Fold Glyceraldehyde-3-phosphate dehydrogenase (NADP+).
Amino acid sequence: MSEICNDKLEYKNLIHGEWVSSKSGKLIKISSPVDGSFIGGVQAVTKDEVDDIVQFSKANFDAWSEVPIFEKADILYRAAELLEEREEEIANILMMEISKDKKSSISEVKRTADFLRFTADAGKSMKGSAVSGENFPGGSRNKLSYVKRVPLGTVLAISPFNYPINLSASKIAPALIGGNTVILKPATQGAVSALHLVKAINDAGLPDGVLQTVTGKGSEIGDYIVTHEGIDFINFTGSTEIGQHISKISSMTPLLLELGGKDAAIVLEDADLEFAANNIVDGAFSYSGQRCTAVKRIITTDKVADQLVDMLKVRIEKLSVGDPRENAQITPLIDNKSADFAESLINDAINKGAKIVIGNKRKDNLIYPTLIDYVTDEMEIAWKEPFSPILPIIRVNNISEAIEIANRSEYGLQSSVFTNDINKAFSIAEKLEVGTVQINNKTERGPDHFPFLGVKASGMGTQGVKYSIDAMTRPKAITVNVTDHTII
Ligand code: NAP
Ligand code: G3H
């Protein structure tokens, strides 16, 4: 067995370059949401161990920050290669640990290798600037400020269950290239996959203590690490509930938060409906709706709603439901609690008069793709993030009402507008209170070098390769003041 775990699949943490078990002696059992099979055990790290991990991070910060960027980039290039060499192994673990279909699991690993390379390239393109004092009233060319970006220190990266590889790497790599040391706290369900990612990055030649991991339940160890005085920046992706909690307790520690969403697809009367239906089904149901950027509501007018509903129904009927190993598109949800929540949203909508077009079937934690028409604003599904394959349709009278309903959400991640009128698309896009508007496309994060951000309850700060490096570094100005003019 590899150093990352023993032959009983008891996984260890990477602490100061060594894979070690926790002194707690406590292992958290990770079972597959697909068939209940044993994926592995992860360590419940103690508070004392967190103290040691943070101290190692601090001790190794200066040396790492001084490593030339091209050497840091070489490590990321090598990590990308290792990830690709281990693609099949890691994708198989991912598939069973978080119930993601095989094709999407492979694509998550590939996308992450690309992300590592792109981050290395972006790091090598980082440059400083020189600002002359003479541009500001009363200033003088005797002052010249050399401005460059420097790391923040120790970054705590906290990732969610749904993209344990990609959303861990999208924090780790920009933090490292910026010169920070990193501690990763992965989601417990997803931790085994994330530890394999960390192993690939570490095997690429990172010095000891530059990247370390803390596994354990967020409810037990989360508050302790988040409020640890040695943490200089928290980069969190997860639910709005936990994000807001972290923001309350973390005091002066700067934060980047990627949180929940309720992305709307607004379909105008002049849209290419076949195209919109294809896009919406893909956007709403891939990975069974467990994406922050999933299309989580359709807003349209009566004039096209019936036709659109028919087109959506035909496509949803064709979605394969079942086992991710057989590449089913709709797979069991991450746990029973999530399926209970999904079912409660469907029942609430039915009780308040909504019409089920297709779906409303459950087998354990597997929720069949469900389309709900005639959803009104009293229904929970109009506002809550289902994180499951449920798609509500809200019928409105006109574009103004569509914008009003879209903006009434507490969330503000993305929105789509489907129309053939580019002028209308732009004017609607200007009015939508979200981080990104997709014109004639499903809502989605990628490509990963685009700015990715949420407003309102969807987050704080901006991710995306260059934006993430900027977020985890700060400007440092060194100003030269020429005072002696005797030689002139
Ligand atoms: P979650 O329950 O909020 O957990 C996210 C992470 O926070 C996990 O690592 C979790 O660890 C940890 N955590 C829990 N309590 C903590 C605490 N008190 N202190 C520090 N960390 C703590 O979210 P999830 O269920 O994994 O992910 C689904 C949610 O993430 C959805 O709402 C989705 O929209 C959102 N998401 C947003 C984006 C985006 O980019 N905007 C991307 C992906 C997902 P444990 O697993 O050990 O509890
Ligand atoms: O769950 C949130 C991910 O960042 C979504 O990424 O839109 O590429 O699936 P994606």
Notes: The mean pLDDT is 97. Residues 102-124 form the longest helix (23 residues). Residues 158-162, 167, 185-188, 217-219, 222-223, 226, 237-239, 242, 245-246, 258-261, 292, 385, 387, 413, 454, 459 surround NAP (ligand 1) (CB under 6 Å).
